[in-house]
Structures are given as C-alpha cells and as structure tokens.
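Ticket reopened. Same input as before:
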Amino acid sequence: MIKSFKKNIKGILIEGMTLSAALLIIAIVVVMITVIVIGGKEQISWEFLTSFPEDGMTKGGIFPAIYGTALLVIIMSVAAVPFGTITAIYLTEYAKENSIIAKTIRFAVRTLAVIPSIIYGLFGLGFFIKFVGTSVDNTFLGGQLKWGQPNILWASLTMALLTLPVVIVSVEEALKTVPRDLRAASLALGATKWQTIWKVVIPGSISGIMTGTILAVSRGAGEVAPILFTGVAYYVATLPASLSDQFMVLGYHIYVMTTQSANVDKTMPIQFGTTLVLLALTFILNISAIILRYRIRKKKTD
Amino acid sequence: MAHEKIQTENMFLHYGSKLALNDISIQIPEKKVTAFIGPSGCGKSTFLRSLNRMNDLIDGVKIEGKILIDGINIYDNNIDVVTLRKKVGMVFQKSNPFAKSIYENVAYGPRINGVKDKKQLDEIIETALQNAAIWTEVKDRLGDSAMGLSGGQQQRLCIARTLAVNPEIVLMDEPASALDPLSTSKIEELIVQLKEKYTIVIVTHNMQQAARISDLTAFFYLGELIEFDKTKKIFTNPEKKQTEDYITGRFG
Amino acid sequence: MTNKTQKGKRSKSSDSGLIDITQKKFRWSDYLAEKIIRGTAFLSIAIIVLIFFFVFRESLPIFSTAKSSAKTEASAENQATQETYGEVTDTPKAQDVQETYGEVVDISATADSTSEAYTVSAGSGFDDNQTALKSILTKDWVPVSQKPRYGILSLIIGTFKVTIISMLFAAPLAIMAALYTASFAGKRLKEIIKPTIELLAGFPSVVIGFFALMVLASFLQEVFHYDTRLNSFVGGIAMGIAAIPIIFTITEDALTAVPKTFSEASLALGASKWQTAFFVILPAATPGIFAAVLLGVGRVFGETMIALMATGNAAQMGLNPFESVRTLAATIGAEMAEVVFGDTHYNVLFLIGSLLFIFTFILNAIAEFYVKGKLMKRIQGK
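Engineering reply: fixed in the latest deploy. New output:
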C-alpha cells in the first residue's frame, strides 16, 4: 500500500513537473504577446501605418518600414519559392530515396536551415555585393559604384537563401501526400514524367507550396541579421524606387529605435507599436500556415 | 486461337536478390479476356505490371527474357515507354481518379496526346464514358468532382479514362476487389463487352469472377506459371494437381 | 470507338493500324525539365560550398603577412589623423558601461569621421595582419584603436556563457514539456501546446530581443538584484526562449518515434504511465533529445539580434552570469556595417563568421549522422 502510494506520489510529481514546464512555455508566449499588445495598441492608427517617420524618428509613422518589408519578402519569394519547389520536386520525384545525391542534398538543406542567419549576411556581403555586384559594376558600368553596395536586391536574395530550406521542407511534405496511385495512373495513360508532375503532382500540392511560401515570408519579414549589412538602412527619406536602393524594414527599425536612438524613452510608444505590427504580421502569416498545414496532414491521413 | 497479342519467352523477374517471376512463357490472344489467378504473392500482379513496364518505376526490378507485344520486345532499347503505355492501358486495384472533374479525368489522356479541339474532346469523352457504361450516370454532371462518385462509379470512370487514350490492350489489376457485389457485376459485364475491341488481361483474386468473365485463365504459384488454358478447362479439368488444389479451395 | 474520334490519333499509328512503339521519341519538355530540376537541386549543395568559400575567403587576408600596397599608402596618408583619434577610440573600459550597443561604433561616430578612423586602424603598417593574427587568441577585443587588438577569447567565452545559460534554462523546460505532450497530455491540451510552440517558433528574434530588453531585463533585475541590467543571464534566458521550439519539436518527434510496442510492453508488465515515460520512452529517445539540444545550441550560438539587444555587448572574460558579455555573432552584427571593406577588422569579422559557420556545421553533422545512426540502432535493433 505504502509503496504504491509512494509510486503514485512520484508519478504525480513527474506529471506535474512536466505539465508545469509546458504551461510555463505557454505562459511565456502569452506574456510576450500581452505585453506587446498592451504596449503597442495605443500607437496603432491608420496614420501610424501610412506616414513617414518625423523629427529624427521620434514621431510619425512607419510606412517606409512596412513598404520595405513587403518589397523584401516579395522579391525574396520570387527567388526562393521556385527554387525551393524545384528542389523539393527533385527530391521526391527524381532522386532515388537512398541515393547518395539525395542524401547529400537533404543534408545540405538541413545544414542551410541551421546556419546562423548572420552568416547569410556575411555571405550576402562577400558574394552578392563584393563579388557579383562589384563585377557587374566593373564590367558594365566602368567601375561606377551601383551594384557593389548594399541594396534591396542583394538583401532579398540573401533572405531567399535563408528561407530556401523552409520552402523545400514544406513543399516536400506536400508532394509526399500526393498518392503514388495517381502518379501511376497518369503514367499508365501515357503521360511523361514531366506531364505527370506538372498536371497531377504540382496541382495536388499547391496548398503545400502555399504553406511553404507563407512560412518563408513570415521568416523573411522577421529576420534582421542577414540584411544588417546587405541593404537595410537606418533611415531613408524616400521609398526604394529601384532594386539598387537601400530600404527600411520593420525588424531593423525596432532594433534601431531601441538601441541606437538618442532618446529611447521618448520613442517607446513607437517601438512598441512597430513591434506589435511586426508580431501581428508574422502571426497572421504563421497561423494561416499552421491551418493550411494541419489541413494537408489531415488529408494525408484520410 | 486468334492472333497472339502478347507473348513472353522465358521471362524472369528479380526484385533485388529475390526471384519474383521464374521462367514465364505465355501467349495471350487478341481480343479475349485472359485472367491471371493465384494466391497473393504468387507474382500475377507483378507480371501484369511488366506488360506495360510499370515495374520500371520500382527500384531494384530486373527483367530477363522477352516480352513481345505484336512481336516486338517491349524491353528493347529502342522502345518508347510512353507510347507503349498508351498502347497498353491499365486499370488499378484501387480506383484512383484525379482530384478534378469527371470531364477532366477522362480528358486527361487525350489532352496529353495533344487533342485540343473542344468538339473532338467532347466526342472522345462521351464515347469513352459510354464504353465504360457510366455515361448515363454522369452525363448531367460532367463538371462535378470525380471524388464525389461512388467507389464503383469511380472505377468505371478510371476505365473510361483508360479507354479515352484508345489503347489496344487493357490491363486490369483486381479492378473489382474493393467494390460491392452490385458494382462488381457491372464491371464484369463491362469487361465482357470490352473484349470486342480490346485485349483484356485481368488479375483477380476471385475465382468465380475468372470463371465468369475470362476466355483463358493462367494459374500462377510462387512466381511460376503453373497452368494456362481455356478457362473452362482450367475450372473443370485442370492438368496440374496444384491448380486443382487451388481451384477447389485447398489452399490460397 | 468511332472512326471519327480515332482520327486524331491515326497519325501515331503504323500502317497496320496498331500503335507503333519502336520509335523512341525525344521529348524536349521532359528533357529540359529534368535537366533544370536536377541542376536546381544541386544548388542547395552549391550554396553551402559557396557560403563557406566566400565567408572564409574574406577572412583569408589575415593569414597572409603582406597586404596590398594601396592599403599601406592609405594608412600613410592618415598617419596624422591616427594620432588624433587613436586615443579617443582606444577606450576598452568604456565597454563596461551598461546598456551599450556595439558602442565601438558609437565612439568612432563621435569621432566624427568613421571611415577615417577605421582606415587608420587598418593601416597600422606592414605587420598589421601579423599582429592581428597574434592577438586573436588574447582576451582584448579592441578593434578600433591605435593598436587594434582582435582578441576573440572574451567573445568566445561570452558566447559560451550565454549558450550555457540559455541551455540550462531552455533544455529542461522544452524536454519536459515535450515529454508531457508525448506521454501524458490529452488530446485537447496537445492541441493547445503544439500550435503555441509553432507560434513561438514564428516569433522574429528581434521581437524576443525587444521583449527581453524592455520587460525581461527589468523583471529579472528586480528579482535577482544585480547591477548590470543587460547581461549574459538576460540574454541567455531570451535566447533560450528562442531555442525552446527547436528543442521541443525535435524531442517530441524523437519521443513519438519510439515504437508503441516499447511502451505497451512496459505497461503490460505493470509499470505505470510515468514509469513507462521516464524509464522506457525517455531513454529510448535520448539520441534524439541529444540532437535536439545540439541544434538548440546551434540556434543560440549564432543568434545575433537577441545578443545585440539583451546581453549588454561588453567584451568581458568573467564567469559571473550577471555581467555584460559580447557574443561572436553580435560582434559581427554590430561592427560589420561600419568597417571599411578589406580592412583587417573586416577580415577578422569574417574569420569569426567562419568559426561560427564551422561550429554550427559540425553540430548539425553530429546531430544528423551520429545521433540518427544511434537512434535507428536503438529503435530498430539494426
């Protein structure tokens, strides 16, 4: 009796401990959201979202940062989504499951996913700006400095590399949910492999490609480290008009306002407001991705 | 016996290190229904899939010997597998319509063959659906998703889809095994009608089904072709003891 | 089928009326698609190689003793300014001031001619790289000075300090939560916990950094009563929050991958739910959990924004968790935007980047190969 009671106590303790760990994590998330929402909600207004910063960024809105973030993720998606999708198609449709090539690519993708984002920034600087950009300037512009410096194109491409694994993993998961039977049916009708992929496999995994895109966009919208020295600017008075312009971004704006600003207290409301906007943006994106993904997984088990 | 449509000579199939088909030689006549029977794992489905080279998709499958269709070895180097599969259509065990409309399912084959003309497409689709005995059931809702059809209807749609490509041979891999008796009998009726135009090879688990619909029956056991003869003969007076044991239900 | 419908296909048939299969067709679309797809897929491997190549390449000059003469000339021109600004920038003690953000940069900004000041440090002469290389394994990180010193020891120690703190916080929390989710949680609770974690995974690190800076730092200071508001403890906790989703997800995957037969056997022997969870499932999944922690370490090790915002950014050697530290990644983040391309300082920052890259690469490789092999062995007995 006593022994089993002791056992029980232990069981309750362990279950209780693990439960409190789970609850603590939830609590952290809730607290973070609450603090940011409370701190930022007063600041949110149509004007805040649509006007330029004023008075050395101590007043005014964050429109250039929103615009820059949107532009960044659009250019990034244009680069990352096709490449990621194609790689995923290779892995599921062309590569043999256990071939060395497939294994190497998978390892490469997972490594890309864990490389610190700041390294991407260094790569963007060393490769896009100093290598590609400078070469372009020297070859086509006679050495005039245009592409050999940070700009939105290089920043977006750097971000695209960072988000590539996100796209690949999501699309691969979706491609795998397309039943083998359907591929066989298409081939048995005399379709070629590419016709099968184009007409059966890809339409069947559109939602997965969308999930991948949304997750990538959400990641790209929030990351700051890779663009610190590949294109983002502290403050620019005009919106980026060409790919060789610098731009502002929400995440960097938060960083700048909290750490580099002359009067941190005075800009506190703007900081909270900007953080809330960024958080809301990534939330909406993430939640829609989560919903989409649960649907795909459900479809798989059906 | 009529013209030999399909003919294999000393065909062996290895799956990895395992011998799955051992020295199969068979001659399948044109415009007849030929049934393959035998216990699960006897190689009958594997053999069927060799006839339109669907086994190519599986890693580690190696085939030796000859498989001739109209006298041409389909494993020769100069064979166009894509065209081969148009010539030799296939209906699968589980109905597998695409997640598209009924119309688009049947239109899939003609479209990839380059049929673009809407009128011509409509005609092909109507004929295929009629030939698959499903036209009256779906003619008013061709735009509906194929996924909304019943299992038996889906399978007939898959048959229509195969017919729309206008093949010469239709391979059927247990096409009625997942269906209720009523749908099964509809499919069986259909198969008997189809042999007027097509050479049909059907794998079935159901011996009564083989007896009902086929002209010839081949009995496979452990990767070997034990006996192949007129269906009547196989079911009334088999030569081999193993065949008799299987037919009379002593194993399998 | 009517003759009419067959018309379209007649062209494909031979004279006998049978479809001819002996004409091997060349299909451009298929050929091109395969080539493009294959080529693109190799891109991911190429990127890794390129990343390593370019990051490492930019750090290479530091290993060569001779620098381009142009650099030396530039430095000669700036000899005068060097003396003026040297003293201003050579103030390592200034870094002890709390709540500074990459203030190496700020100081030089006050010197009012950033680029000049840096060119000065770059051009300390012919043996600049040698001294730089020699100074790497010292503890003084004073990149902007008359005699720049690039001792990354304090940065490494700072990074490890933060990493250890964050793992001490995040690993037990995430592993226990994963154990709860995998072994005890009912369906409804699971449906709350898992999406919450996914949501947390989607938090931009700059938002977590902001939270740490604005709220967590003050809160923790109030609780623990230490002097420096921003320090490795605050940074560690904040980065731990960022690492929780990774550790949780991989641990949970490892726990659920343990075959049901294991736990069923245990339950059938009369073990209770918690005993099964603790003595059967958890041990079977240890390699996976180990991998989870490794990847968590990788995440924290390379985290930049949180480090910049919450650790105080002073390069110090001490082991006190309540002191400000400066991590490797934060150093790159804070200083790279302000250095002169090709400068020694620039090269050293790339060298730090190479170190980070190699370290995370190795961590991932261990997690991937060693751990996976072990896990397979344990679960499948192969």
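The longest helix of chain B spans residues 118-131. The mean pLDDT of chain B is 90. Please confirm and we'll close it.
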